Fold these 4 entries.
Entry 1:
Amino acid sequence: MSRTRSVAGSGQNIHRRSVLAATGAVALAGGVGYALRPSDSQAATAQESTAAVAASSRQAPAAPLAPYTKGTTVASVAAPRGGSGYRRLGDGSGWQRVVRSDLAVPKPGRAGRRTALAAFVQLTDLHIIDAQHPLRLEYLRSADIHAWRPHEALTVQGAIALVERINALRGAPVTGAPLHFAMTTGDNTDNNAKSELDWFLKIMSGGRITPNTGDPRRYEGVQNSGLKQYWQPDAAVRDSDKQAGFPHLDGFLKAAIREVRSPGLNLPWYSTVGNHDSLPMGCYGSHGDPYLTELAVGGKKLMNVSAAEAQQLQAQIKKASDPKGIRYHDFLKSHARSMRSVTPDERRAPFTPAEYVEAHLDPAHRGLGPAGHGYSSANLDAGTQYYAFRISDDVIGISLDTTDSGGHYEGSIGTAQLKWLDKTLRDNKDSYAVIFSHHTSKTMTNLRSDPARPGERRHDGQEVLALLGGHPRVLAWVNGHIHKNVITPHALASGGSFWEISTASHVDFPQLARIVELTDNKDGTISLFTTLVESSAPHRTDFSDLSQTGLAALYRELSLNAPGASTTLGGDPADRNTELVLKKV
């Protein structure tokens, strides 16, 4: 059995590294301080107490720690039945763990020597969707079949089931160590709508949610529009999805907008921002456009356009030829007479980066903390959305903001943040570091100017990789965005080496989250263990079960069958459940 050291925080002890971290944060003019104390949303200052608490809420068990794989994909994975048409899901064999020696050679006997440094859960790309939002781009489906997903009305129920799964884990799968925290790595919302942000925060911290806007009595959107290009679950319409085998489900839409309850995570959670959280539709730098804001909260919704028009709009988005949404504005205006009437709702308004931070700081959404979920009043003062926090005595976490408010869905970071990242790592050179962001290194290619900092240079993923390579105690860069499990080794010319861990989304099949464990093998190597988990919903669905749990199960199965959905998002075995070995520095 592996030997593990308790990673629970002591709460009152002042650690030398914590003092160093706080001092380093203060030295940055206009920067954001460390969220060192999960109970305090303020940035640490030189005058404040620097008592640091490791991000931990679960006490180490009294009994010897043991591996715990129940409820993980090591034990079982949802598996499709049949090879064509609409496929049902059932229980499948678990995924084996793959040892990867790309960056260091694993040594025999390490399982009996290792000690745990930290363990956490990564959730990413939840895409909590207000499925009736007037600005949604569902009509792009007339040109691209996978531009709209038939299961999008069930994102709330699916995310709650993921929270329930995480809560049921008794410890980390390999070491059995307590889980320190959960981190969401962006695209927590889908349309940059206040309704979605409220639902996301209640899912994570607990509360009752009615996933419905507009008319409180009924659904008003594309799924009861009568349009055959969308699945009409309640209607007799022979739509394109039913022709592909999708079921007729009486009462589906009524059930989808019914009140549900989330228990909230039973451990602290932190939040990283993604492009769908920062930008309307995830791609438009259009917060200053009053026409688009009025449409978001108003009583008109465009549901159908020609394939040629949809193709043209989609090309503008993909090629980033309209990052400010000016052509999008004109496109909607030209289709004003084609829009259908819906019930207006102010809750659908877009939120600004400052409002995103303020919502996290709201005591109503604290849950088990930390206050602000990583963000602090210093972020509001500086207009930033990046921060650092102490995970354990030996490990710090750094959350980056890789979105570009100038528009487009790919990312980058500004010079001030790049310098802050470098200084934060230097000031904590005795600690191991885990970097969190939404974008991957390969998708940080958007170098548009930030409207809030027009004179600041933007930096791509290769520059971030080079910087991280100069800090030998960086262990991992954990991110999402690409909706696919990919684990990439990085051995940089500057001498450092670390693993980039990109995790699949929870909106597209196979709908996963990931547990990451950091261990010292006591032989000159460190191992990072990654273990994927599904939601708590049963693999098998029952079309007559429209309960909260039944809908969460349907959410998974419908995502499997979504027309045009990629079949490779689960990644290769070496991108799933792994042991990633590094040389110890």
Note: The chain has 15 helices and 21 strands.
Entry 2:
Amino acid sequence: MNGGEDFGPWLARQLQRANMKQADLADRVGLTRAAVSAWITGRAVPRDETMRAIADVFGAEYATMHTRATDVADSGRPVSWYHRPAYLDGGRDFGNAATFAFDADVEVLAREATQNSLDERLDRNNPVRVRYTIHELTGEALARFREAIRWDDLFPHFEAAAAQEQKVGRVIAEGLRDMYERDRLVLLRVDDYNASGLTGDDYEDGRFAAVVRRQLDSRKSDVSAGGSYGLGKATLWATSRLGMVLINSTLSEPHEGRTERRLVGRLDLPWRVVDGEPFAGPAWFGEPDTAPGSEGVSRSWWADQETVRQLYLTRESSAPGTSFLIVGAHDVASKAADPVQDADEVGDEETVQAMHERLVDALGRNFWAAMTAGRSTTPILEASVRTLRNGHVVIDEERVDPYRVQPSRTRALKAYLDGETVDRLTETGQVAHARVPLTVPSQRGQRGAVEHEAVLLVTAAEDGDGKPNQVVMMRGNRMVIREARVPDLPLGTNPFQAVLLAGQAAGEHAPHAEEAEAFLRASEPPEHDKWGQTDELRAVYSTGAHRRIREFTSAAYRSVRELVGRSQVKSKDGPRALRDLLRLDVGPSPVSRGGGAPTIRGLDAELDVSGAWRVRAEVRLPAGQDPWLLSPVAKFDVRSGARPSVGWSEVVAGQNCELVGDKLLFKAGARTASFSAVTDASTHPVRGELAGLIVELEKARGAVE
């Protein structure tokens, strides 16, 4: 018995689809019911002449009995929408709560959906390929698509949901208005290749049920997986104004003897009443089930190529993976979120173009490291975006290039992958690396912490990376978890970028990488955008585990400072390098303070994208019980002549001081204080990068005596 699916389960399904009992088949082939039961349970197989008789019963080719690559019994029930009946106890859900864990934002979608694709990478020697397709339908193309999804059957449910005065209902009403008034519908498709696909049964444990039927079920056992809450998939439905996602999956493991074109749809609506009948919320698009206990429930079906084409779900190859089609996609963070503005001001093409650009930007910023390859290593991700209208190209497919979106950081990671890092930066273009210890605490009920060595990379910053002097942190799947400015840098530090690789991202030989992966994964919230205290961390690990993360990040900051510059030299007059940049001109005071004048403890300054200087100063105050009223003054350092003053666009009081008008009043009795300020670029006599900045604290008129 050669073939994909075992004969017994295959035969049992054909009987269900044909609404036929075992006794009926036994009568028609001239055998006993016990013989049919033995075939179905796998205790026996029919003889060749009996196989021919079974094929005649189902009207199938004889070869089909051996290949079992398709269903031969037609259920006679076309695909349709099944709407979950209302709860018998009167409970009502006015939407899927999981969708509110994230914003309806294509940047969030790109982060969560791509992370899920990375977690399902099949062949570890090749990258996962992810492609986003924005497809705007209008006119006849839109009408044909609505027919394919049985829109006439759905409309009463949408109408009832939109009439409700609650959040989900208002979003649906906006989606209907956009489609009917403007005769347009935006589809956003996410395809992945070299991924597992939605394997498993329609209802039992498995990837399919976890995505299509369940919430808070991640089904991820790999410790390097990015997701852990089972919430990321909700971004697909959150990005749809209509709450609808259609799915086509090519499986890495056969189900029912097949792997290609497994289709299903899911619709998330609030509780509603249609034609006097209440419905709970979700609905599924598929073939009505005939199995006992699931009669009438829509389950996945194996679609033909024409159906897949009509639903805009055709995949470009037979490589395993899944295609998610978000119906009625919108982006609250771009112009696409405002249909009135789109129609009157920017037009449809710019709407989809804005969505296209935001997707490219989000993929580059979050996954540049996953797309970086070494000389002898492949990337773990390839990503691209394209935009269509009614099947015609609006924007060609654009592959995201990590060297273009993050040049310095990509250079740093490639140097590490190629073994070309140095211990200290001495020339432009070099990449320095250091080891940063992470103490992984023991889990509750176990003994013994272990020490993992993460990898820190530092290199000179280029303009394309964005803000300089940042460190980005990541683990196994190389998605950016956190980006933070390195504090307390020595004055005059050249602009740099730093990358912290923890867990399995540190390399296959990093000690205790798996333990670090599990620990850091447990410390991430559903957004996976930081490491810190979480309920899971508190429940799984020993008391105080979150302190290990603080120690880890502090150690990383120290290592960065050691690689990029010397420690500050302290003196009673403040750091020598700062005295030319921050002068304290407090002048004589008729009242003896008995402790001298304020001195500088630290100064941090950088030019922002507008050309303004952003300054943060820490001031040491002399001993005494008197307050100080001082005016911060900014001047440009020039080679000759008077130093021109520039204005402040903003002054913000920090620790132990307050803003009094445009002056700073330092608290009486305090020994340290801080403030920050931003210069007004419009008052600069020359561009900020062409001159040094001097900050003086001058005694204000009317100072407290």
Note: The chain has 19 helices and 27 strands.
Entry 3:
Amino acid sequence: MPKGANIGLASLSEDTGSVVVGLSWSSAAGDGDADVSVLLLDGSGRVRSDADFYFYNHPAAEDGSVQLLGKVPTENGSEDRIGLDLTAIPADVERILVAASQYGGASFGDLNDLRLTLSDRSGEALLGFSITDATVETAFIFGELYRRHDEWKFRAVGQGYETGLSGLATDFGIDIAEEEEAAVPVVDGIPAQPTSSPHDAPVSVSGSVAGFGSGSGLSDALSAPPPSSPGDAPAGSPAPSGVTAAESDEPPAAGRRRGTRTAKKKVTLPRTAKKSLAENDSWKPARLFPVPSYKSDREREVRATSVLLSVMAEVPEFGRRLTAGFGAPAGRMQTFTEVSLPHGDTPKRPDGVIRVERAGKLWTALVETKTNGNPLKSEQVQNYMDIAARRGYEAVVTLSNDVALEGTPLVEVKTDGRRKHKVSLWHLSWAEVAHQAQMLIRHEGVGNAAHVWLLQELLHYLQHENSGCHGFQNMGASWVPVRNGIDDETLCQGDPRAVEVVESWERLIRQVCLRLGGELGQKALPVQRAQRGTDPKSRRAALADRLCEEGKLGAELRIDGTQSVLSITADLRTGKIRTSVDLPAPAGGYPLAVAKRLVRALEAAPADLHVETLVEGRTGPRGTLERLRPEPGDLLPKDGAAMAGFRLSLFKGMGNTRGAAESGFIRSVDDAVDRFYGSVVAHLGPFEQRRPSRAKATAGTA
């Protein structure tokens, strides 16, 4: 769509009661990021109250009409997704603004490929809008959905603000208050967790927490004049078929409302565990979901499906979080297991069924589960897709330890294009399920103590060694042949086994991000550095050729709240894993003072940390932290060359086996990332210039 154009959703699809809006961008340097926000406006063009403003500290509406689904990695960057249940939007809301903002001095001109995509319930893209004229703006209204004669329409807005999220919010009636950020205990650089197993900890209810302004970095240019109303649609190029010029009957501006919103009480796990009454460590607490020694994979699948679906139905926040991304509406949820459905000569039994009711309409998904690393079977999933299409169901959801990759489907299925009814196929990794439970009970909070306990028991079950729900745990059959081929230099470019290893490595890195993000309560995403327009298959083939040539697997990931990119390199020739981060040297400081400041910041880092001074065009001074602590001046180039920054690295022996056992490659990568982040990255705050903190409104942190 061109800027300023609009179109009715009913003309694009018959199923637009629930839509997903995706905002995407990329950065050549891999360091671009932004936060999405949604504003609900009434007929006066203002929010009805501050509760109509959805952003990282207020990510979902109680009625499920709006839900920020979070970021997912794409081939060229990342995409932030928003679920909108248009049937649940209150009748007095006439417009829904979809926006994004930058922070820490960054602007949208630093990002590439700014784009909005709107998809229907099945995940099929209906429209797209690209912003190509971004420069110094720090906030952008990408687009808006609005009502016209009982129909929802979309307008491509592309309106920028130089005053950031606060300028955008106040322009539509949000009052923003600044408060001191509450101190959070830190242990080894990671926000403190319970001192004993979190699964044995009681729950506590905290007091109310300010929903806006608590360390949110929204104070920039609060008094700056806002730009003209986005209701005055800018001119655009001639609209394509079905798209009309922007309507001019926007309501006039109204006065701003007053009053700072206070978030409702949330329940999370406490920071310290209640003292156990057990006489000794051999006493095991009673569990809601015990994990005995199963005799078969089938028993594991039945048990895991029943446990997960029952908790989804009982804990609305959790069930809604998992199903919103599938296009399910917000409503009353029921779940079922071992349902028999007619299909040909013999009935089929999906592992589970999820049904959501809203306004007398049903949304239904069939669930197929695999545990213990067992692969999904295409024939089985195809049968469920056919059943869903014939019965008018909306989705099929697969669950397994595997992690889905863009451009590489886990199962191949065929769809009958002649069928009017569309069925969407979605996949969840058990690692993602555990991540969502962990985010809710340890960082974001849920409605009551009983729900925390249920999620606590679910998380304990998923993490038990006998559950079979452990996420990605096997590098695949090609791992050993590729590793041996690199050792004896017989692996050639173009070998399909190298591509399989690259895909497994990418799955492992995605899972590392999920696990680390759940522990920290921050977004963690892999950084993609690919040329625009590169398809996943070509990109992975190029990485496989590089693996054959260099014998190395490499990845980068960014953790929200830090400026630096964490690099992970597995050198299959030397058998070592290198975790590293590059720090730019602070501007304007004396070289020796900068070196001393860095060494002081690394006081708690391990002695074997490798520190290298970055000098343009050549290798700079380097050494271990143990040697540099008494002599920080050894980091200064002898010829007085300018220091561009520093590279900090830790090395660890690489596991050889393809699995996740103690001696396996997967475990060695997990351990390397945990050690490097906890002992190095988490302590760099005093040295690197951090962007403004974006603390979540989380209870139970005192």
Note: The longest strand covers residues 151-161.
Entry 4:
Amino acid sequence: MAKAHDVRSTKIADDQGKIWSDTLQISVPYGYRETAYMTNGYHLLKQGGDGRFYCYRIFSPTDEAGGSTHTKTVQAINLLAWDLTHIYVQPKTFKAANSQDAFEYILQRSGWEIGENDFFGGVKSLEISAGNNAIYWLDQFTSQFGVEIRAYVEVYNGKIVRKLIDIVEELGESEGRRFEYSHDLLGVTRTGDDSQMYTKLYVYGGTNSKGEIVSIASVNNGRDYIVDDEANDLYNNGNQYLEGYIVNESIANPSGLLDWGKQQLAKYNHPKYTYTVDVAHLGYKPNLGDRIQVIDFSMDPELTLDARVIQMDESEANPENNKVILGEFVEVQVVTPEDIWKLQAKAAQAYQESQKAKAYKVEYFTPDGTDFADDTEKRIIIRVYQGADEITSKIDNDKFIWQKINSDGSHDTDWEDRHVGIGNVITVGSEVAGSTIRCQVDDGLSDSILFATEEDAAYFATLQMDPPSGWDDFTNSVAQYAQVDYPRSDIYWSQRYYGNKRHSGDGSANIQSYVLTRTDLTGAIKDRMWVIRGGHGAQFGIEYINGKMWIWSYYLDAANNQWHVVKFPYQANKVLDWGDSSIVNLLSTNGGYRTNLDVRNGYVLFVYGTTNPTFYVCKKADVENKQFKPLYTARGTDVNYFGTDQTYQSACLDFPYVYFTSGNGDGSDQRCLYCFDIRSKSLVYRIVYTFDKGTINQIGQYNEPEAISYYYDSDGKKWLIQGFAWGNEDSEDSQRTNQLFRINEHKRGDAS
């Protein structure tokens, strides 16, 4: 009897860069009730390994007879691909579009909405020409912004209630997994191919307003091609260039076309390798996008690969057919208008380690794009490595030596003088078009610019544990967050609220409430208010204006299942609910973005997710104008945070430094405080709390590092505030002891 068969194949990249593909094939023998539904127009729902539900539309059924057995086989594609194939996109020109602008435009009328968005890929000039459907532009923007996407649905009571597309820098996780042949890796196949290797590319774009095909000649010294001499020497023995021809009809701007051409040359200028690994021998099931290390010293050449899962084939009916495809591709940001700085892969770090005392490696990032000829200012950010160690935070600002080299090879000394001491982040405009921007790192490696240890902590306050006289409905649970209002000698504490002021059915993770309690600087209670359906208070911001303390937070409009970023005044004894006239609605968001406010510097921090949280930094003025325009983004894995092994708690921003804490309640993971620079995504320092230094003393069996915030005292000194939710002195008492500790963060050169 014929058996059922299924294969789901998902793909995020090939040897030319980022793509998106998600298909499903199922074969079912006749005789089952479901067989009748295996035909055009029907939808299939499948739950992926990440817990999300993926919907597929059948587009090609085939009936086959073999002896006495009849089998129906269907081909299906992700519903997003089907929907976008049948939507025509009207022409439009964007002078400065980010990924949200571009994808939102092509998703119009599709029924799909953007869920998570890392805003990776910067801001670009885009020319959406006539004659193409939305799936064409989805492919174009996936490549141009260098993003990865997943398209899934949310299901309620058996029905699809939302269709979501996440747009992220990287799917998957980086858990440091390593597989070595003959030890724990079998069944690996490496396939090489140089049939599409080119060291000289002719680059052409779309048609301009005059009906002419756009080339790069006007911005490339009259040449409509680009070459890579180093690659030609290495892979072609210095012989005649290997010529190729590429076209991108969606680009009509010569500068943008040149940038795109350089990116493509970096993908074509070497032989391609892909790796197929038998999942049965991995010992675990990876997810699409996961990064793993594969080592086989017996291969020739040796296989030492830090790769990602770029394609997965999964079968529930025949698990032995599960395969993962590993790709070597690395997306490298273009450094300057004329040069591409080639970054070495981690597999080549051994040599750099031997040169550790002599040389730095500098990585360049241009998050706003590289079309320096337009009118939009753009940032250039660098990270510095010594060997495999990232050391950006250990280098003083005056050690970053920026250079502007004109097209004739001369230095623009006036420009260079203006950028002395500016640090590792600069903002440039059209004045650098046609020039080369470089940054050298002078000697002078030292300790971190900022640093703190557990020894720098001291007790600060304990939230009052007994209710004031006459109070009922008293909350004695974990304090999720705390903010110190030093000028008015107040502390604001948040705790999840479980009492009867909630609506019925408000027990789910998505519909939570919290109580906000105001105390003095010792923790003695003054008053409180309730924030119904405002989450569980894991993160908020404060701002004092004209005699009122305003709370910045996220909030759920449960009736419409819509999250918002809001601010509202603290009002003693107020029971706040959605729709109250005191709530100022700032933004609507696709999910609960934990919110924190940096009043001192004029920024807002948003955090989305917990396993690999994404951090977004926006200007406060933009948010108040109802615009979500992240200037900087980072993910937990950028600073070696592994959320599968750590429990995310809360965060705060004192620009450019983001602080966040992790650690659960039962002691099964490390209790940590992270500090990183959001501009360069560089870890500045990390504290792993051990509670054996005599400065932070555990009470009872729990030790959750729930809250992280800060305040500036009257002398302008910054103090970090680390909150812990302990157990109780009485082991039989379930009430938590909530305490704050003040950490003295040091700047390099400060007296101890």
Note: The two ends are 79 Å apart (CA to CA).
